[in-house]
Amino acid sequence: MKIVQYAERGNPVDVVKVLEVDAPSAGPGEVVLDVLASPINPSDVLTVTGDYGILPPLPAYCGNEGVGRVASLGEGVEDIAVGQQVFLPVGAGTWRQQITAKAAEIVPVPPGTDPLQMAMLTINPPTAYLMLRDFVRLEPGDWVIQNASNSGVGRYVIQLAAAQGAKSINIVRRAELADELKAMGADAVVVEGPGMSKEVREITGGAPVKLGLDAIGGDSTLALGDCLTDDGVVVNYGLLSGEPCKLSSAATIFHDVTLRGFWLARWFRNAPIGERMAVVTEIAGRIATGELVAAVDSTYDLDHISDALARSMAGSRDGKVLVTPNGPIDSQV
Ligand SMILES: NC(=O)c1ccc[n+]([C@@H]2O[C@H](COP(=O)([O-])OP(=O)(O)OC[C@H]3O[C@@H](n4cnc5c(N)ncnc54)[C@H](OP(=O)(O)O)[C@@H]3O)[C@@H](O)[C@H]2O)c1
Questions:
Q1: Using CA atoms, how far apart are residues 332 and 315, in angstroms rounded to an integer?
Q2: Where are the domains of the chain?
Q3: Which residues contact 287 (CB under 8 A, 6 or more apart)?
Q4: How many angstroms separate the first and last alpha carbons of the chain?
């Protein structure tokens, strides 16, 4: 079977390779899964380049989440059926054709749901959900502002904010995205640039903006901070520009705006299992009903992993890039 591996850190397009290895077999209490779909997230790229918060020893396998289908059962495994769609073990190197998993830890995918959408469940939707929940108490009608708003996380933020009655201002760097984001629940879409805080005040009519979500850093953090009300909170969760976060003295001194960070890996490490399950179950339900959707730009098989990585790192995409290691998955739903 094919598996994606890298033996040195660097540009993923150059260092990531596809290897042919023996297919796994299911030991006692295990299952073998055919991998159906797994997204390429910015954190996958940062892990290969060596810029992520936690780095595996080399050589390492790529891919952290996704959906698979049970291919075979090991000794003693009951209550799981061959052919059933299940979530892949998180962080297990999911860009491969087959993977083993402990049967006791298998979580089934809700029947009849889109495997591509479900493959993106574990990382981006909880990030959006928790950032809206855990930093500022947002009442119906309250405003939240974010940058990189057409990203996977950004689109979940738009949908989740709208669902709880909060209003979102969404900063993008391409004006043509406005209609699409408004159709999914964005109240306002603003193109990044000078004079943004004035435009934001006009949009809100001077109502306070309590929360700013920042995936970019540098001057984009600065611009978000200048849009916030007294005691507002900027939550930095991404490093898309590679620049350190900035806040103006006006924001910090005159408005007591604070900068916080969010990393889902820390939340997963610290949150009790019951809370983790509750959040993931709630999100799975919302994806299943179509309330939460991520745009999909393209899917690639493993033979085209370099093209997939290059596409995932390119700007102006129409959504997420996923690998489908066993071929296009429409016919497998
Ligand atoms: N902290 C956490 O726990 C956590 C969890 C999940 C995700 N994240 C982070 O969240 C961010 C979004 O992830 P994702 O999977 O949603 O991304 P994604 O769907 O791959 O989208 C990336 C988006 O970023 C925009 N972008 C890229 N570089 C930019 C720059 N320098 N300035 C402005 N916009 C830029 C692109 O906009 P264009 O369309 O204009 O090119 C694109 O919309 C990433 O930084 C990721 O690492 C963090």
A1: 30
A2: 2-120+294-332, 124-265
A3: 113, 117, 118, 121, 125, 293
A4: 22
Cα separation, 121 vs 314, in Å, equals: 22
Architecture of domain 124-265: 3-Layer(aba) Sandwich (3.40)
Distance 215 CA to ligand 1 centre (A): 6
How confident is the model over 124-169, as pLDDT tens digits? 999 999 999 999 999 999 999 999 999 999 999 999 999 999 999 9
Euclidean distance between CA atoms 116 and 328, whole angstroms: 10
| pLDDT score of 32 | 98
Identify the CATH assignment for 2-120+294-332 out of 3.90.180.10, 3.40.50.300, 1.10.10.10, 3.40.50.1970.
Answer: 3.90.180.10
Residue found under tokens 């489908």: 324
| 236-260: pLDDT as tens digits | 999 999 999 999 999 999 999 999 9
Ligand 1 atom, smallest distance to 156 CA: 16
Q: Which of 187-201, 209-223, 246-260 has the lowest mean pLDDT?
A: 187-201
Three-class SS state of 170? strand
Q: What is the pLDDT of residue 194?
A: 86
Take atom 16 of ligand 1 and give the residue whose Cα is closest: 152
Q: Please identify every residue annotated as catalytic.
A: 52
